[in-house]
Amino acid sequence: MSKHSAFIRFEENHNLWLSRDTDLSLSFVDQGLNPVVLASEADVGLAMLNELFDTAQTKHGDINIALLGGRGGQEFHRLLGELAKNTEHDALLSRLNVFTQDALAPMSMDNGFSFVRDFERILGSSFFTKIKRFIPMQTDCTDLEQAMTEYLNKMEALGGLDIFFIGHGPEENQASHLAYIKPYSGAKADHVAGIIPISSSILEHHISKFKAGGAKVSAKDEAVCRSAKYILTLGPATILQAKKLVQAVVDADTAPAKITTYRKVLNMTISKDTTEAAGQLNENPGLWIRLHPNAKSFVLPNLGL
């Protein structure tokens, strides 16, 4: 354990996690999970947009959000892109500080498998012109840790996340990931972000969901993507400290493993014993959402709930 900038570094099995040198009062109280089943992907996108509208009405000043990559956020992003083509919601858009939550690295943001390129494709140029700030994770630099600390410092300086738009990723043994917090990666409640080694399963999931979502990619882009070594991800502390979590799970048709992995998160209970709870969360990071007191989970009927 050593200090790097304003953070403390923790390494476990080649996974690097960063935490603030401050005491965090994070509670291990299981809040449960109550999914809202909506009829279509368009309905999920509209529900996500309404959560943004609700936050805009109850908060003054800037609104800080973390975008959800992949299929889960695409309908929401299309709606935002449509809003940006008109002027009715320009005042809201001008308040947005938009962050990304995970990324493959090293990889240019121009790569077709980059979340940034996918966001640009769906949200459109008008959106990025009208928002206050777009702050992506830097993925094509020589010092990923330094870039991550600078990114986290920007987020903290702006007051943290008001809405963390989040997904649900399937893993082996009916486990799951949030952002890209992998099972057995050693993520703990005070870890704000991590740099973790990539796995073949993550690469396949990432590539398949981009192709299913309609991203325009080339064989060269795919080759570069497959050579990525790390995943940059926000950590449990950032998830738990967000004022609101908004989860979207819409792609069980193309990722059928989510049917069983989501159900496991839904039906499990996190132990009241902190040591046992830490083990459960390390084994199945999708459970972190159950600890947030203000989380909503929008899903489709294809989850079979």
Q: Portion of residues in helices? A: 25-40%
Please tally the β strands and state the result: 15
The tally of helices reads 11
Mean of all residue-level pLDDT scores: 92
Strand order of the largest sheet: 4-15-14-9-5-6-8
Fraction of residues in β-strands: 15-25%
- Principal-axes geometry comes out as globular
The helix-strand sequence is EEEEHEHHEEHHEHEEEEHHEHEHHE
Distance between the termini: 43 Å
* Contiguous runs where pLDDT drops below 50 for at least 5 residues: 1-5
Computed Rg: 18 Å
Strand count, sense and barrel status of the largest sheet are: 7 strands, parallel
Q: What class, by secondary structure content?
A: alpha/beta
